[in-house]
Amino acid sequence: MSALISKIQKAYPFFIIAAILILLGLSAYSSFHAYKVTSDSASGIAETDMVTAWDKRLRKVRLLLPDQGIVGYLADWDIPGYNYGSSDQEVEFLLAQYTVAPVVLERGTKHKLVLGNFSDNGDPQKIPNIEAQFGIHLVQTYSNEIFLFEVNEK
Amino acid sequence: MSYLVYLTLLPPIIIGILFVSWILLPSKNTNLMLILSLGIPLGLGIISCFYFLWSYILNPAFPGFICFELALIAALGFLNWRQRAHITEFLSSTFKNRNKLEWIFGVLFLAIAIIGIATFINYTNVNPHGRYDAWAIWNLRARMIARGADQWKSIFIPQVFHADYPLLLPLSIAHSWVLAGTESQRIPPAIAGLFTFATSGILVGSLFSLKRRSMGWLAGIILLSTPWVIYFGSLQFADLPLASLILAASSSLCMALIDQNKSTSWMILAGLSAGLAAWTKNEGQLFLLVFLVVVCGLIILKFKNQRTIGRLALSLGIGLILPVVAILIFKFSLAPANDVIDTGNLSPAIASLISAARYGEVINALNNYPKGFGGWIVPIPLVLLVFALIIQPQLIRERSNLALILIFLLIMQWTGYFLIYVITPHQLQVHINQSYDRLLMHLYPTFLLLFFLILRPIEDIFSTNKRMD
């Protein structure tokens, strides 16, 4: 028995070396693997990422807005009965907010100016219907999907 | 402007390193790795607090803040110059008496760090603005501050997404943008990278200071080879900055206990780090509370001498004062209500806290959360468990006190997170799925500090075995 314990004691450093080598091997593998996966995805990316693309898309809208303050925001998710992807709408709202900062966007028509972000479904009556529904009128068309409205005076 | 914008990050980093070096030297229980790594988050944190006060009194674009930074660098430079003899001695001893094992582990750490940096750059190339929370919260707030000029306070309204979140990260970014005169997209990932890689340096340096040199390198290798660390760091969220400050506070507190000659200096750093954690994220405010409970218990139980208690409490207060002033001004004069805890109406939160069924729901929801952490090919907890069984823990009395402190900090922080899930007004499973892995990431570097602190030093194992032969 004591001979066995002695053998184990003598072999103990080798267990430790093995444990350290396995740990280092797993670390190295994890690092290389993460690097390889990210290299592959980085080489396959589109020219501009989603946020940069949105920033470019809305950059000049900032010039139409006041320097500070709160501006209303309407999008497809505000049109009753309209089909939309809720996460897309939220992301677009936050992306728009990111671009027009420090102007704050608030959903709805509580403020005099309203930024509209409506997908172009080819319906020529879509914007007139929105104007009638929300009591707003078009001030400027920025693109076929981005509009600046003003709330009608009561 | 291109790469020159990185120069705007230098003043906070230099201030942090000079501050840590001035406060810690001369001490035999510190090292270059720890001074350089602690200097980065603390420097960025200190400058973000001063920049907040500057902006609050004047405005973010008001000229002259760089003069204040240069004056601070000059003052700290002078204080360091006065102890230049200690610094020279400290630097010359840095690379002396290092054994082969340390050099091997050191080179491996460097290799893993380089691969980590390359991976970080790849992630950043895919998402230069970071992921959702980065552009929806942190970088957006930085834009609002930098662009807001004298109207910047008007952005802290309930309509702004999470406008109550603290400002260390947004102000650090805005500070660089205002100084550079351009909103360079290089700055947010650079700051994210500084925090991410400084965390590994703090972990390695802390274990060096705790006389665990080889274990320090190993811990750093494990941390940087954990894919989630690099990934979460590259997201430009505030989670890695918070993790680095929780680690800095925990390790400085441990050092305050074992480095008797410099205990007040370590306590200042511990207080500053914990305060800055609270200035980074709301979860950091929970950590500050946990930290104060642990420190108060520790001071009362461990120290009997009234003067020592007074000195340590004063040091803690000195460290806390700057970030706590910034937090109090922000929370009481600018920030709107929090979305999880409505201080105006606490009854729903209290009702949840006293409902046993709610605790069952949280446990079930945590059970439903996809298991696994870290992104290794094999589960990290299993690997660490097997490693611990082979190396075996070694707890001499002094170390067991430190281990107990770290265990208390980690368990109490985790319990705080659990209670946040108990009172959350959001859909529970969604809240857990969106946040739990990031909450665990806050604790991961400190857990690694604990893990490698309690294991037998590898050098000891081999020297014992040689003696047996």
Could you name the key traits of this structure?
heterodimer; A: about 150 residues; alpha/beta; five-stranded mixed beta sheet; 5 helices; 5 strands; rod-shaped; B: about 475 residues; mainly alpha; 20 helices; about 75% helix
Helix percent of chain B reads: over 70%
Shape of chain A: rod-shaped
The number of E-state strands of chain A comes to 5
What is the overall pLDDT average of chain B? 91
Compute the separation of the termini of chain A in Å. Answer: 98 Å
Task: Report helical residue fraction of chain A.
Answer: 40-55%
The first-to-last residue Cα distance of chain B is 64 Å
Taking strands numbered 1, 2, ... along the chain, how are they ordered across the largest sheet of chain A? Answer: 2-1-3-5-4
Order of helices and strands of chain B: HHHHHHHHHHHHHHHHHHHH
Give the oligomer, counting copies of the same chain as homo and different chains as hetero.
heterodimer
Biggest sheet overview of chain A: 5 strands, mixed
Residue windows where pLDDT falls under 50 for at least 5 positions of chain A? none
Strand content of chain A: 15-25%
Secondary-structure-based class of chain B equals mainly alpha
